Amino acid sequence: MDAEEFRRRGKEMIDYVADYLEKDIRKYPPLAKVEPGYLKKLIPEEAPGEPESYDDLMKDVSNVIMPGAASPACTELEVIMMDWLAKMLKLPDKFISGGKGGGVIQGTASEATFVALLAARNKMLAFLKENHKTGEDKELIGKLVAYCSDQAHSSVERACLLGAVRCHQVVSDDVDEMRGEALEAAMKEDKENGLIPFFVVATLGTTPCCSYDQLLEIGPVCQAEEIWLHIDAAYAGSAFICPEFRPYLDGIEFADSFNFNPHKWLLVNFDCSAMWFKDSGHVVNAFNVDPLYLRHEHEGKVPDYRHWHIPLGRRFRSLKLWFVMRLYGIKGLQQHIRKHVSLAKQFEEMLKSDARFVITHKVTLGLVCFRLKDKSNDINAELLKRINADGRIHMVPSNSKGVYFLRFALCSSRTELPDIEFAWSVITELATNLLDENKNYE
Amino acid sequence: MDAEEFRRRGKEMIDYVADYLEKDIRKYPPLAKVEPGYLKKLIPEEAPGEPESYDDLMKDVSNVIMPGAASPACTELEVIMMDWLAKMLKLPDKFISGGKGGGVIQGTASEATFVALLAARNKMLAFLKENHKTGEDKELIGKLVAYCSDQAHSSVERACLLGAVRCHQVVSDDVDEMRGEALEAAMKEDKENGLIPFFVVATLGTTPCCSYDQLLEIGPVCQAEEIWLHIDAAYAGSAFICPEFRPYLDGIEFADSFNFNPHKWLLVNFDCSAMWFKDSGHVVNAFNVDPLYLRHEHEGKVPDYRHWHIPLGRRFRSLKLWFVMRLYGIKGLQQHIRKHVSLAKQFEEMLKSDARFVITHKVTLGLVCFRLKDKSNDINAELLKRINADGRIHMVPSNSKGVYFLRFALCSSRTELPDIEFAWSVITELATNLLDENKNYE
Questions:
Q1: How confident is the model over B165-193, as pLDDT tens digits?
Q2: According to the model, what pLDDT value does residue B411 have?
Q3: Domain ranges for chain A
Q4: Contacts of B169 in chain A (CB under 8 A)
Q5: Of A385, A367, A412, A110, which Cα lies nearest the Cα of A232?
Q6: Tens of pLDDT along B16-55?
């Protein structure tokens, strides 16, 4: 949608809202007169391959959503949109609605990780209780250990802090990926110390360098130990709608929960973090308290999403997914991903053409990590500082195993090749100045 | 703003967004070129008493917000808007920014309660550690007890479940309010059993019947025991901007944290739950993990809101508060509250005029609780069922100390006296039918 169409459609939407408030609101009953499950019959089972027209979409808003009002339309569209997304990612059937599994929209990946941890904690405590382990729930919590790579996002450690469980950061290998053997060794050590492994977070596309924990090794370890495996693909997940990137997700069949952020890289506005459970019963049991004013006659027929996350109130975020998936089609979204990856590859080529730089991590998606070759961390930190002080572009650094590096991240849907070329010219200009100044000192 | 102005202003806003994307976006630097703290100098210290013009507001969006971009404008406007709100509520100075205290926007009251609990848990564990109590953090958690009234919202019990602490529901008095003596007795009992009281949630305006826990009794109990007091006024809090309702908040000086939902009753769209801390250090300590890619040079100068709640990502929700407080002015918001309370009082008069009904709880704000006089819970439940099956209006019931009652809740900004009269006609019509059918059976 170009700016002209945005102006037109935006203004139509303003009129739609004004008409609703001015003329239509009193025509609607206070509670929708539809049966739970009504929406499934009115919406296709999969996202369209090709883009659809905005007019068709708005017709459906009027005919399909409005009669279902906020409830049950809000819940039911979310169920179906999460199925659409799951199918685009080729998630195993167990994550699709209809059985025990299904998806839900969380606000952020941090929340998804925390919710998965709480569900896993509940599952393990129930298991321990059944198996007559000594100690009360709250004492056993002190023995639970969660695992993640030393490259995992800080939100995993934070989830452990909030969930009152231990966090064991497993040392990643020389390409910054968590391996099955290292995980197994960490668990063995903890068990020998009387602790209880219960939860593993594997990251696909780590924040520092976009590395991928080895699911095909980690999955069987979790399965053998009956430990909850959560996969955090907050950034990289969007790319898995392209067949050429889907292999990174191989091993998803071992996961109990999976999460990625359409708001990061799938053209959906913040916030929209997509999360799936293989068996939602565990999260429901972890969250469920049941007062009279929250009871209703349709319990069990549709998911009670308030038991699937921390807030009780809910926004109608699935509309964003519906609009984006229909207006772009699967094809349009794949094109968007591929364009970014191609731009990242072009930036990689620029770096390769300049012997002063070294690429520190394999470029797989839209992140390029690099540093000044054979220069100290301090010099590299100084380069980053000058780039940001200069103000024409902005970058964020990271550090792995003592090596400081700069991260060139493609984020905006508006980025074009000239932007990459511009960024490269800024980086080389500032690097040249810095190296000139320092050539006598290193 | 009427529908006509909404159409005009909405379309202007669409053009503003389109112009930004089409023409302006590349004129802005990737990072705002303003110093932290810039916004405070550009915005008044208090909300306006009278409504301001939309044109003035949009001028400020362009001149004051856009140069500060997402960061730091998003954080700084939130700090200032929470101060505006705090001053409207006449919160004690300790909740205002500048010292240790300040406000933050959460998504829902459930999250606010949970965040307060996590901060309180952290504070108590730190205190116990300093005072050489035996046992590790995670074992001591098993001894912690939180308190709330048996009328408190289920989200308090849920926060305890998620926070892995015990929840002691204190029996409320005959008007469904938690009293100081009952709380003190509950704590004494728990301490005798080796447990550690650490957190009290007092509710102002309970969900079932809009009762008010007795802050002036509960506050001193918490103070004497050095226990975190959180006040949940999710619904009723909006009313406290009116001097005649402010006395319900007396005792707020004892609180460590306070929360109410402008999205419930202050004309702000969902979600916007306003929360204040007297000393934000405790929540920051509970949430803070500190990796390199999240560090920045302005730490300490402005609040790092990511340590004040569960998500790490943030939306620019303070804009909603800014628009609403300026377009209505304090006076307009007070009028909105008073209109609803007046409509509730009129509904109360209708009930009083009909001897078949009894009002079960004092009508203080916009909620009227009632039942059929001298009839069984079953008959009352049947009335509620028929009202909702009829579909012209919708109501939600509750139950206190074995007595079932119906809750007539004023929610919409569009409700007028004819709507109340219409609802009353539906209720009396269905009650007449029901009583006729049942007169031979009871």
A1: 999 999 999 999 999 999 999 999 999 99
A2: 85
A3: 1-30, 75-328, 330-438
A4: none
A5: A110
A6: 999 999 988 888 999 998 998 999 999 999 999 999 999 9
Strands B196-203 and B144-149: parallel
Minimal CA separation from A60 to chain B, in Å:
22
Strand, helix or coil for residue A308: coil
Of A21, A141, A292, the CB nearest to B398: A292
Considering the domain A75-328 in this protein, what is its CATH number?
A: 3.40.640.10
Tally of CA atoms within 13 A in the half-sphere of B7 that contains its CB:
10
CB contact under 8 A, B14 and A11: yes
Sequence-ordered list of residues with C-beta below 8 angstroms from that of B96, at least 6 positions apart, any chain:
B83, B86, B87, B102
Fold observed for domain B3-74: dopa decarboxylase, N-terminal domain (1.20.1340)
Q: Does domain B90-319 have CATH number 3.40.640.10?
A: yes
Tell me the nearest-neighbour CA distance from B56 into chain A, angstroms: 21
CA distances from A158 to A38, A167, A412, B276, B432 (A): 40, 9, 28, 22, 58
Superfamily name and number for A330-438: Aspartate Aminotransferase, domain 1 (3.90.1150.10)
Please name the member of B18, B136, B313 whose beta carbon is closest to the beta carbon of A270.
B313
* CA-wise closest residue to A354 among A429, A292, A282, A280: A429
C-alpha to C-alpha distance for A307 and A305, rounded to whole angstroms: 5
CB contact under 8 A, A164 and B110: no
Q: How far is CA A105 from the centre of its chain?
A: 10
Distances (CA, A) of B293 to A32, A113, A118, A395, B289: 47, 19, 26, 10, 12
Nearest residue on chain A to B399, judged by CA atoms?
A292
Contact B391, B317 (CB under 8 A): no
